[in-house]
Design a protein that fits this description.
Elements (H helix, E strand, L loop, with lengths): L4 H6 L13 E2 L5 E2 L3 H12 L2 H4 L2 H8 L3 H25 L6 H8 L2 H38 L12 E4 L2 E4 L6 H14 L3 H28 L21 H11 L5 H7 L7 H30 L11 H10 L3 H34 L18 H17 L6 H26 L15 H14 L4 H25 L1 H6 L1
C-alpha cells in the first residue's frame, strides 16, 4: 500500500518494550560493555573542559562578571532538558539519542532534521575543542621546555580578523589534527577501552580543576565583580543582553547530556543507567562550572579575558608569580581536552550509525568490525572531516554553530516527551517520568532554549539555514526512498 507524502514524513519507528537489556551484544550488534560510572564519566568528559578551559575567553567579554549568570541560565535550561532526556532514554534506550527519540515520536522527517543538527553539533564541537587544545599544549611546551610551536603550524588558514574573514595562505593548525588522529586510533580499538580511558582522563581533569579552584581563590578579589554587568554597549552586549549572548556561547558545553544518550546501545541495563548517567553528569558539571567561573573571575579582571590564550593557566601564573602551577594546569588541560574530543567524535559516529541502520544514509556507516565491534569506516570518515575543519578554520566561527545545534536538539527532545506519553497512553511502562506531568517541564525547556537562542549572531542563523536546506534536499533525494520503514510500508 503506497503512502502519501505526509505519511512518509510522519512515519515513526515502533518502540520495543519487551527487550531484555543485559550484557553481551545489543540487537544492533554493538557490545553492551559500559556501566553507570563509565557512562557518567562520558557525560562529564564531554562537558567539563570545553566551557571552562576555552569559552570563557569568548563569553566573559560579552557578559563581564555576570557570565556566572550565563552559566547558571545554561545549567537550568540543560537541567530542564536533562529530565526530558532521562524519561526518553528510559523508554527508548537506543543509539542515536535525540534522533532516535524523534524517530519514535514526531516522525522520520523531523528525525532526519534532528540528525543533521546533531552532526553539526558534534562535528563542530570536536573541531572547536581540538583547536582550543592547541593553545594549552603550546603553553605547556613553553613552560616545560622553553619552546613553542611555530605560529604557521598552530594557526588556521581561515581566521576571524578585525575586518572580517581573513585567509592566511600556508598556515595550518597542526596540533588539533594530531589530537583527532589519536582519538580516532583509540576509538577504533573499541568502546569499552575508550570509555575506560575517558574515565581515567576525567578523574585527572576534575583533580586539576580542584587544583585551579584552590589556588585561584587564594588570589580572590571581590572588586573584580564590580560592575557586575557589562556596561560597554559598543558591541550590543550591555546588561542582560550580554548575559543571554554569553549563555548562548557557553551552552554548547552541555553537549555531554546528549552524548550519554547516544551510548544507549552499548550500555548495560540502559533503562536504569542512562537516566542516572544523564542526571549525575549534569550535577557534577554544574558544580564545577560555577566554582571555576567564580574563582577565575575573582582572580582576574573581566577585561583581561578577551583574546587570552590558555586563560586558566595564565591566571594561576599571575596569582602565584610562578610557572609551575601554570605548567600543571596546562598539562591537565591537554589531558582533559583529549577526553572531550574523544567523546564528541564517539557521539557523532554513533549517531551516523543509527541513521545508517534506518537506511537514511549509506549502509557503509553501520558496518561493524567483527573483532572490535566498532563502525570502522564511519569512525575514519568522521575523524577526517573533523580534522580538516580543526586544522583550517578559526574556532570563533564554530562555538555559536555548536550552540544552535544543541539548542535545537534539546527543544525536539522536550517536545518528544508529551508526544510519547500520548502515544503510549495506558500502556506506558512504569519508571522514570518527568515531574509535574508531560507539559510543564518540557514547555519550560523549550522556552528557555528559545530565550538563549534569540541572542545568537545573525550569521549563525544564516549558516544554520543553509545547512538545513542541504539536509532537506538530501532527505528528499536519497533518504525518503531508501528508508527501511518506507520499504516495509510498500
Amino acid at each position: 500500500m503506497s503512502q502519501t507524502l505526509v505519511q512518509k514524513l510522519c512515519r515513526t519507528k515502533p518502540i520495543d518494550t519487551t527487550v531484555e537489556y543485559g550484557e553481551g551484544l545489543s540487537s544492533s550488534g554493538l557490545s553492551r560493555s559500559i556501566g553507570l560510572f563509565s557512562l557518567t564519566m562520558i557525560g562529564v568528559g564531554a562537558t567539563i573542559g570545553t566551557g571552562i578551559f576555552f569559552t570563557m575567553v569568548e563569553a566573559v567579554p560579552k557578559a563581564g562578571p555576570s557570565v556566572v549568570l550565563s552559566f547558571l541560565i545554561a545549567a537550568i535550561t540543560a537541567g530542564l532538558t536533562a529530565l526530558c532526556y532521562a524519561e526518553l532514554s528510559f523508554r527508548i534506550p537506543a543509539s542515536g539519542s535525540s534522533y532516535s527519540f524523534a524517530y519514535a515520536t514526531v516522525g522520520e522527517f523531523l528525525a532526519f532534521i534532528m540528525a543533521a543538527c546533531l552532526l553539526l553539533e558534534y562535528g563542530l564541537a570536536g573541531s572547536a575543542v581540538a583547536i582550543g587544545w592547541s593553545s594549552y599544549l603550546n603553553n605547556f611546551l613553553e613552560n616545560a621546555f622553553g619552546w613553542h610551536i611555530p605560529e604557521m603550524l598552530r594557526t588556521p588558514m581561515i581566521v576571524s580578523g578585525p575586518h572580517g574573514m581573513e585567509f592566511h595562505a600556508g598556515h595550518i593548525n597542526l596540533p588539533p589534527i594530531f589530537l583527532i588522529c589519536m582519538c580516532g586510533f583509540l576509538l577504533l580499538r573499541g568502546a569499552k577501552e575508550s570509555a575506560l580511558m575517558n574515565a581515567i582522563m576525567v578523574i585527572i581533569k576534575l583533580a586539576i580543576l580542584v587544583f585551579f579552584i584552590v589556588i585561584a581563590f587564594s588570589g580572590f578579589n571581590a572588586d573584580n565583580f564590580f560592575p557586575f554587568f557589562n556596561a560597554d554597549n559598543s558591541k550590543g552586549f550591555a546588561g542582560m543582553t550580554g548575559v543571554t549572548a554569553a549563555a548562548g556561547t557557553v551552552f554548547f558545553s552541555f553537549i555531554g547530556l546528549d552524548t550519554v544518550a547516544t551510548a544507549g546501545d552499548e550500555v548495560k541495563n540502559p533503562t536504569r543507567n542512562v537516566p542516572r548517567g544523564i542526571l549525575g553528569a549534569l550535577l557534577i558539571v554544574t558544580v564545577f562550572y560555577l566554582l571555576v567561573a567564580v574563582a577565575a573571575l575573582g582572580a582576574q579582571q573581566a577585561k583581561l579575558f578577551e583574546g587570552q590564550e590558555a586563560g586558566l593557566a595564565v591566571i594561576l601564573q599571575n596569582v602565584t608569580g610562578k610557572t609551575w602551577p601554570a605548567l600543571v594546569l596546562s598539562a591537565g588541560a591537554v589531558i582533559s581536552v583529549f577526553s572531550v574530543t574523544l567523546v564528541t567524535i564517539y557521539g557523532q559516529t554513533r549517531i551516523l550509525f543509527a541513521v545508517s541502520r534506518d537506511g537514511l544514509i549509506p549502509k557503509s556507516f553501520q558496518k561493524i568490525h567483527p573483532r572490535t565491534l566498532v563502525p570502522v569506516s564511519n569512525t575514519i570518515i568522521v575523524c577526517l572531516v573533523v580534522a580538516v575543519v580543526a586544522g583550517s578554520v578559526d574556532a570563533t566561527y564554530l562555538w555559536d554553530m555548536v550552540s544552535i545545534g544543541t539548542l535545537t536538539a534539546f527543544m525536539v527532545v522536550s517536545i518528544a516527551v508529551p508526544v510519547l506519553r500520548h502515544k503510549q497512553g495506558a500502556n506506558r511502562i512504569e519508571g522514570f517520568s518527568v515531574p509535574f506531568g508531560p507539559y510543564v517541564i518540557p514547555g519550560l525547556s523549550v522556552l528557555a532554549c528559545l530565550y538563549i537562542m534569540r541572542d545568537l549572531p545573525h550569521t549563525t542563523f544564516v549558516v544554520f539555514s543553509v545547512w538545513m536546506a542541504v539536509t532537506v534536499a538530501i532527505y528528499f533525494l536519497y533518504s525518503m526512498r531508501h528508508s527501511h520503514l518506507g520499504k516495509k510500508a510498500r
